Amino acid sequence: MTKDQLRKEYREKRKAFSENQIEDFSKKILGQLKSMPIWDAEYYHVFVSIKGKHEINTSPIIYDLFDTNKKVIVPKTNGKELLACEINPNTKWETGNFNVPEPIDYKLIEPKLIQVVFVPMLICDLDGNRIGYGGGYYDRFMSKLNKDCLKIGLNFFGPIQNIKGIEPTDIPLDYCVTPDEIVSFVS
Questions:
Q1: In whole angstroms, how far apart are CA 118 and each of 164, 165, 186?
Q2: How much is the pLDDT for 104?
Q3: Hey, which end of the chain has fewer CB within 10 Å, N or C?
Q4: In a 10 Å sphere around its CB, with 0-12 CB exposed, 13-18 middle and 19+ buried, how is residue 145 labelled?
């Protein structure tokens, strides 16, 4: 299947989930994340869930990070780029491009400070190649991170065998975390 065919297929699969299922899956994903040895870092980037896209609810991850005094970074679009915005529990929000909640008050930080990034996706393969919504925002953003930054894709579905049409600009994940498993792509 092409990337576009996979995008369509996994968008449809996500639409089949009820809100209750999404909340249940999101809690299980947080449980999986908590079992990983990734919590010694200081700076964590978390994508913010988009209403209506049947995405993982990342709010519990964000609040868990606040509760453990970690620095929470979220994206804000700026043209074709993502800015790294440090937020706090009192941050005010607005609806940005593509109906993505974006912070109004934030501290801009250098992406190289980020040590762990939680990445949205529709599906990935067994090599850690991911398919997002097709705009390339996260690939451009991840190209600015330090090489040792952990890139963790969060998804309802485990990896498929292979994604065709991977480009040199596509940045692979280090892990995929689903409600049922943690898949490592690091050797």
A1: 23, 23, 16
A2: 96
A3: C
A4: buried
How many separate domains does the chain show?
Answer: 1
Instruction: Answer for the pair 69, 82: CB distance below 8 angstroms, yes or no.
Output: no
Distance of alpha carbon 84 from alpha carbon 107, whole angstroms: 8
Residue numbers of the domain that contains 74:
3-184
Q: What is the pLDDT of residue 119?
A: 97
**Gap between the Cα atoms of 109 and 89, Å rounded:** 17
Indicate the SS3 state at residue 102: strand
**Looking at this protein, which amino acid is placed at residue 38?**
I
Q: How high is the mean pLDDT in each 10-residue block of the chain (187 residues)?
A: 92 96 97 98 96 92 97 95 97 88 96 98 97 93 97 98 92 98 94
Report the candidate in 137, 134, 149, 124 with the shortest Cα–Cα distance to residue 45: 149
Q: How large is the angle between the packed helices 59-67 and 19-34, nearest 10 degrees?
A: 40
Helix (H, G, I), strand (E, B) or coil at 86: strand
User: Can you give the CATH number for the domain in which 41 is found?
Assistant: 3.40.50.10420
Encoding tokens for residue 172?
Answer: 């692979």
